[in-house]
Design a protein that fits this description.
This protein is of the alpha/beta class and about 400 residues long. Helices cover about 45% and strands about 15% of the residues. Helix 1 packs antiparallel against helix 14 and helix 10 packs antiparallel against helix 18.
């Protein structure tokens, strides 16, 4: 049996190997081959690899791209016995339903997490700041930080997806979840006035100098040290970023929900769900079912969630919360609805051009028109591939 998964850090790799070794010890008749891949490479090669028949189980994400793979017959659904076991073993219903496509469940839920703003508690205390809940409070906090010589916000946009988090949240807060889903499903043009408003609001933050310029063309791992050293006030991040916090500063890092923009729009949150899927051409369906049942029955699944500082899909009141777990649960409890993140919810052909458009936008003069036209041109080309440029 072969298992493919993503490795983002040493703790994650160690957890995967430990879980696989535990399964192998309990199932000596099953030989397990496993491969860990860097995230961006894995996402790029995922669909072609599904077609090869190499893997029996593969790590993936809930969202539109999982639905596309299921509807294109590249995945096998979980069987009724396994779904019954998930329910019996107290997997959160939302995580089971989160991968249902046309009545079938296509993902074995592993863990989930939420996005929000991380900040230094000691810095906020020193400046007399509290986590802002409204947009006016957020702007006031940014002004206070800037006046103290601290860049209010830091964003590493080289990889595209951290910037997409900003776009998602601004669109969710300004336009709501229904519009956001239609936009990412390519049912609304990016030149729509509501999308332009998202970029205009974001551009206002950029023109006010609220974003730390030094990080805008950096990779993700380069941004957090600015937070630790008091050079940046807030970073929009998934709670899994806690796995990267040095022990010396971890207790000082707080986490709060992205502030509300309008009282007319409830707080919708980004809460990605990571799963294991069954490639339709897998060679060992019995072995993979045994492995998934082992994860559900043994508690081993929680080791992977703990390594990622995420919330296990399987409820366990006795398990310790991850570093940002209490704040994450508070954010999730107040959510009016959940999305899975831009590159999981969007049509695949939209992701690359959108990331390129966001990177263009983040360079002066922060041109809304240039960004939306760049993304819309690619969207139209994808919808009408036979039309010449």
């Amino acid at each position: 049996m072969a298992i493919d998964y993503i490795v983002s850090n040493t703790r994650q790799r160690t957890a995967w190997i430990s879980v696989i070794n535990q399964f192998s010890a309990a199932n000596p008749d099953v030989q397990v081959e496993h491969h860990g891949y860097p995230q961006e490479q894995y996402k790029r090669d995922f669909l072609p690899r599904l077609r090869t028949g190499h893997a029996d189980l593969a790590f993936w994400y809930a969202g539109e791209r999982l639905r596309d793979a299921a509807r294109n017959k590249l995945l096998s659904p979980l069987d009724a016995d396994l779904i019954a076991l998930l329910k019996k073993k107290k997997f959160a219903p939302a995580t089971i339903e989160g991968t249902r496509v046309d009545g079938e469940v296509y993902g074995f839920p592993m863990y989930h997490y939420v996005w929000g703003l991380v900040y230094s508690k000691s810095l906020f205390n020193r400046l007399g700041l509290r986590p802002p809940k409204t947009w006016s409070e957020f702007l006031q906090a940014c002004e206070r930080l800037k006046a103290a010589g601290v860049a209010p916000l830091a964003l590493a946009a080289k990889d595209g997806w951290p910037a997409a988090g900003w776009f998602d949240y601004l669109d969710l807060r300004i336009n709501g979840i229904d519009f956001h889903r239609k936009l990412l499903r390519s049912e609304v043009p990016f030149t729509d006035a509501r999308v332009r408003q998202v970029f205009d609001v974001w551009g206002d933050l950029l023109r006010k100098g609220y974003f730390l310029e030094a990080t805008l063309d950096q990779e993700t791992d380069r941004v957090l040290p600015y937070l630790y050293r008091g050079r940046a006030g807030m970073v929009l991040a998934g709670s899994f970023f806690a796995a990267r916090f040095p022990a010396a500063v971890a207790a000082d890092i707080g986490f709060f929900a992205f502030p509300s923009y309008s009282p007319d729009i409830p707080n919708y949150e980004e809460a990605p769900l990571d799963v294991l899927v069954q490639p339709a051409v897998g060679r060992n369906p019995r072995a993979r079912n045994r492995f998934l049942a082992f994860l559900a029955d043994s508690g081993a699944l929680r080791q992977i969630a703990e390594a990622d500082e995420t919330l296990s899909a399987q409820a366990d009141p006795s398990a310790p919360l991850p570093l940002l777990g209490e704040a994450s649960n508070t954010i999730l409890a107040g959510a009016a609805g959940l999305t899975y993140f831009f590159d999981r919810d969007a049509k695949v052909e939209l992701v690359g051009p959108a990331f390129d458009g966001l990177r263009l936008f983040l360079k002066p003069p922060y041109d809304t028109d240039q960004a939306v036209r760049h993304i819309e041109k690619a969207r139209q080309k994808a919808r009408s591939p036979d039309i010449a440029e």
